[in-house]
Design a protein that fits this description.
single chain; four-stranded antiparallel β-sheet
Protein backbone atom coordinates (compact mmCIF):
# COMPACT_ATOMS: atom_id res chain seq x y z
CA UNK A 1 0.00 0.00 0.00
CA UNK A 2 1.20 3.49 -0.85
CA UNK A 3 -0.12 6.77 0.53
CA UNK A 4 0.88 10.02 -1.17
CA UNK A 5 0.09 13.21 0.76
CA UNK A 6 -0.34 16.40 -1.26
CA UNK A 7 -1.30 19.95 -0.32
CA UNK A 8 -4.40 21.27 -2.09
CA UNK A 9 -3.95 24.74 -3.50
CA UNK A 10 -2.06 27.41 -1.58
CA UNK A 11 -1.76 28.52 2.02
CA UNK A 12 -4.68 27.66 4.28
CA UNK A 13 -5.87 24.82 2.08
CA UNK A 14 -6.23 21.23 3.16
CA UNK A 15 -4.52 18.04 2.04
CA UNK A 16 -5.32 15.28 -0.42
CA UNK A 17 -4.35 11.70 0.36
CA UNK A 18 -3.81 9.50 -2.68
CA UNK A 19 -4.02 5.79 -1.78
CA UNK A 20 -2.77 2.97 -3.99
CA UNK A 21 -4.01 -0.40 -2.72
CA UNK A 22 -2.49 -3.53 -4.25
CA UNK A 23 -4.23 -6.85 -4.78
CA UNK A 24 -4.89 -8.72 -1.52
CA UNK A 25 -4.36 -5.51 0.48
CA UNK A 26 -7.17 -3.95 2.48
CA UNK A 27 -7.57 -0.80 4.59
CA UNK A 28 -10.40 0.62 6.65
CA UNK A 29 -11.29 4.33 6.34
CA UNK A 30 -13.19 5.72 9.32
CA UNK A 31 -14.25 8.94 7.58
CA UNK A 32 -15.65 7.55 4.31
CA UNK A 33 -17.39 10.84 3.46
CA UNK A 34 -13.91 12.30 2.80
CA UNK A 35 -13.31 9.95 -0.17
CA UNK A 36 -13.74 12.18 -3.23
CA UNK A 37 -12.36 10.03 -6.10
CA UNK A 38 -12.07 6.29 -6.72
CA UNK A 39 -10.66 4.11 -9.51
CA UNK A 40 -11.13 0.35 -9.44
CA UNK A 41 -13.85 -2.31 -9.45
CA UNK A 42 -17.12 -1.29 -7.81
CA UNK A 43 -16.74 -4.20 -5.41
CA UNK A 44 -13.49 -2.66 -4.12
CA UNK A 45 -15.42 -0.48 -1.65
CA UNK A 46 -17.80 -1.90 0.95
CA UNK A 47 -19.23 0.39 3.63
CA UNK A 48 -20.19 -1.45 6.80
CA UNK A 49 -21.58 -0.58 10.22
CA UNK A 50 -18.91 -0.47 12.90
CA UNK A 51 -19.23 -2.60 16.02
CA UNK A 52 -20.62 -1.04 19.18
CA UNK A 53 -17.18 -0.25 20.62
CA UNK A 54 -16.14 1.47 17.41
CA UNK A 55 -19.34 3.52 17.30
CA UNK A 56 -18.79 4.72 20.85
CA UNK A 57 -15.08 5.47 20.56
CA UNK A 58 -15.21 7.12 17.13
CA UNK A 59 -18.76 8.46 17.43
CA UNK A 60 -19.26 7.26 13.87
CA UNK A 61 -21.57 4.58 12.49
CA UNK A 62 -19.93 3.51 9.24
CA UNK A 63 -16.45 2.68 7.99
CA UNK A 64 -15.36 2.06 4.40
CA UNK A 65 -13.48 -1.17 3.68
CA UNK A 66 -11.25 -0.57 0.65
CA UNK A 67 -9.71 -3.64 -1.02
CA UNK A 68 -7.22 -3.71 -3.87
CA UNK A 69 -6.37 -3.37 -6.55
CA UNK A 70 -7.71 0.18 -6.52
CA UNK A 71 -6.77 3.82 -6.15
CA UNK A 72 -8.68 6.54 -4.35
CA UNK A 73 -8.27 10.07 -3.02
CA UNK A 74 -9.44 11.37 0.37
CA UNK A 75 -9.59 15.08 1.21
CA UNK A 76 -8.89 16.81 4.51
CA UNK A 77 -10.19 20.26 5.51
CA UNK A 78 -7.78 23.17 6.10
CA UNK A 79 -5.69 22.86 9.23
CA UNK A 80 -5.76 19.06 9.40
CA UNK A 81 -2.95 16.68 8.53
CA UNK A 82 -2.40 12.92 8.41
CA UNK A 83 0.53 11.28 10.16
CA UNK A 84 1.18 7.80 8.75
CA UNK A 85 2.76 5.35 11.19
CA UNK A 86 4.16 1.91 10.38
CA UNK A 87 3.56 -0.67 13.11
CA UNK A 88 5.98 -3.54 13.65
CA UNK A 89 4.09 -5.28 16.45
CA UNK A 90 6.31 -3.83 19.20
CA UNK A 91 4.72 -0.43 19.82
CA UNK A 92 3.14 0.22 23.23
CA UNK A 93 1.76 3.70 22.46
CA UNK A 94 -1.76 4.63 23.58
CA UNK A 95 -3.90 6.72 21.20
CA UNK A 96 -7.20 8.55 21.23
CA UNK A 97 -9.38 6.51 18.87
CA UNK A 98 -11.01 9.69 17.56
CA UNK A 99 -7.69 10.65 15.92
CA UNK A 100 -7.68 7.49 13.79
CA UNK A 101 -8.40 8.16 10.10
CA UNK A 102 -7.54 4.74 8.64
CA UNK A 103 -5.81 1.48 9.49
CA UNK A 104 -4.70 -1.45 7.39
CA UNK A 105 -5.58 -5.14 7.54
CA UNK A 106 -3.50 -6.89 10.18
CA UNK A 107 -3.79 -4.10 12.75
CA UNK A 108 -5.72 -4.96 15.90
CA UNK A 109 -6.93 -2.69 18.72
CA UNK A 110 -7.02 -3.15 22.47
CA UNK A 111 -8.80 -0.86 24.93
CA UNK A 112 -7.15 0.68 27.99
CA UNK A 113 -9.40 2.30 30.62
CA UNK A 114 -8.09 5.64 31.95
CA UNK A 115 -7.91 6.67 35.58
CA UNK A 116 -10.65 8.95 36.91
CA UNK A 117 -8.27 11.94 36.94
CA UNK A 118 -7.29 11.38 33.33
CA UNK A 119 -10.92 10.91 32.32
CA UNK A 120 -11.75 14.33 33.77
CA UNK A 121 -9.01 16.09 31.81
CA UNK A 122 -9.20 14.25 28.49
CA UNK A 123 -13.02 13.91 28.57
CA UNK A 124 -12.55 10.34 27.41
CA UNK A 125 -12.88 7.00 29.13
CA UNK A 126 -10.49 4.85 27.15
CA UNK A 127 -7.37 4.94 25.03
CA UNK A 128 -6.53 2.47 22.28
CA UNK A 129 -3.37 0.41 21.88
CA UNK A 130 -2.61 -0.96 18.41
CA UNK A 131 -0.98 -4.33 17.90
CA UNK A 132 -0.01 -6.37 14.87
CA UNK A 133 1.79 -5.27 11.73
CA UNK A 134 0.52 -2.69 9.26
CA UNK A 135 -0.03 1.04 9.04
CA UNK A 136 -2.34 3.58 10.63
CA UNK A 137 -3.17 7.17 9.69
CA UNK A 138 -3.56 9.63 12.58
CA UNK A 139 -5.60 12.80 12.03
CA UNK A 140 -3.91 15.85 13.58
CA UNK A 141 -4.17 19.62 13.74
CA UNK A 142 -0.91 20.94 12.32
CA UNK A 143 2.53 19.36 12.31
CA UNK A 144 3.28 16.33 14.48
CA UNK A 145 6.32 16.49 16.75
CA UNK A 146 8.01 13.72 18.70
CA UNK A 147 9.99 13.81 21.94
CA UNK A 148 11.62 11.04 23.97
CA UNK A 149 10.65 10.47 27.59
CA UNK A 150 13.20 10.14 30.37
CA UNK A 151 12.61 8.13 33.57
CA UNK A 152 13.79 11.02 35.77
CA UNK A 153 13.77 14.28 33.77
CA UNK A 154 10.08 15.13 33.15
CA UNK A 155 8.67 16.34 29.85
CA UNK A 156 5.83 18.90 30.02
CA UNK A 157 3.36 18.77 27.11
CA UNK A 158 0.13 20.71 26.63
CA UNK A 159 -2.59 18.26 27.70
CA UNK A 160 -4.78 18.92 24.68
CA UNK A 161 -1.92 18.50 22.20
CA UNK A 162 -0.84 14.95 23.10
CA UNK A 163 -1.63 12.39 20.41
CA UNK A 164 0.05 9.27 21.80
CA UNK A 165 2.24 8.25 24.72
CA UNK A 166 3.77 4.98 25.99
CA UNK A 167 1.61 2.75 28.14
CA UNK A 168 4.38 2.68 30.77
CA UNK A 169 4.49 6.49 31.07
CA UNK A 170 3.71 8.17 34.38
CA UNK A 171 1.41 11.17 33.91
CA UNK A 172 0.69 14.01 36.31
CA UNK A 173 -1.59 16.93 35.47
CA UNK A 174 0.18 20.17 36.32
CA UNK A 175 1.47 23.59 35.27
CA UNK A 176 5.04 24.83 35.53
CA UNK A 177 7.13 27.99 35.65
CA UNK A 178 6.77 30.97 37.96
CA UNK A 179 3.46 32.26 39.32
CA UNK A 180 2.63 34.37 36.27
CA UNK A 181 3.49 31.59 33.83
CA UNK A 182 1.51 28.91 35.64
CA UNK A 183 -1.47 31.24 36.07
CA UNK A 184 -1.99 31.79 32.36
CA UNK A 185 -0.94 28.53 30.70
CA UNK A 186 -3.24 25.61 29.98
CA UNK A 187 -2.80 22.36 31.90
CA UNK A 188 0.16 20.20 30.90
CA UNK A 189 1.02 16.55 31.35
CA UNK A 190 4.18 16.07 33.41
CA UNK A 191 5.44 12.86 31.82
CA UNK A 192 8.24 10.47 32.73
CA UNK A 193 9.06 7.00 31.46
CA UNK A 194 10.59 5.44 28.37
CA UNK A 195 9.62 5.78 24.73
CA UNK A 196 8.36 8.52 22.40
CA UNK A 197 5.52 11.00 22.88
CA UNK A 198 3.68 12.33 19.82
CA UNK A 199 2.00 15.74 20.01
CA UNK A 200 0.38 18.09 17.52
CA UNK A 201 1.56 21.64 17.00
CA UNK A 202 -1.63 23.21 15.62
CA UNK A 203 -3.89 23.31 18.66
CA UNK A 204 -2.62 26.73 19.76
CA UNK A 205 -3.05 28.35 16.35
CA UNK A 206 -6.46 29.88 17.06
CA UNK A 207 -5.27 31.65 20.20
CA UNK A 208 -2.08 32.82 18.45
CA UNK A 209 -4.09 34.29 15.58
CA UNK A 210 -6.42 36.03 18.04
CA UNK A 211 -3.50 37.51 19.97
CA UNK A 212 -1.58 38.70 16.91
CA UNK A 213 -4.70 40.27 15.38
CA UNK A 214 -5.73 41.94 18.64
CA UNK A 215 -6.26 45.67 18.09
CA UNK A 216 -6.94 46.54 21.76
CA UNK A 217 -4.82 49.11 23.56
CA UNK A 218 -1.71 48.20 25.52
CA UNK A 219 -3.32 48.85 28.94
CA UNK A 220 -6.27 46.57 28.21
CA UNK A 221 -3.98 43.82 26.91
CA UNK A 222 -1.70 44.22 29.96
CA UNK A 223 -4.61 43.85 32.38
CA UNK A 224 -5.90 40.83 30.48
CA UNK A 225 -2.54 39.11 30.86
CA UNK A 226 -1.70 40.13 34.45
CA UNK A 227 -5.02 39.82 36.27
CA UNK A 228 -6.22 36.34 37.25
CA UNK A 229 -8.78 35.20 34.67
CA UNK A 230 -8.27 38.50 32.87
CA UNK A 231 -8.78 36.81 29.53
CA UNK A 232 -12.26 35.79 30.66
CA UNK A 233 -13.55 39.02 32.19
CA UNK A 234 -11.78 41.63 30.07
CA UNK A 235 -13.02 41.47 26.48
Amino acid sequence: MNVDVQDIGGNGSGQALAFTILENEEIYVLHPQQIIAYQGPSSGRADRFMDVKGMYRKRKLIRAEMSGPCRFVAALPPGYRIKTLQLDGKSDLLYDFRHLFYYSKGVEMQTRVLSMKNMFVTRDVVKVKFSGKGSIGILTEGTVSEAALDPLDPLYVDAGSVIAYPENAKLELTVYGNHLASQHMSYHWKMTGKGPVLFQAGRQNRRFERDTNDSDGIIKRFLREVLPFGGVFIK
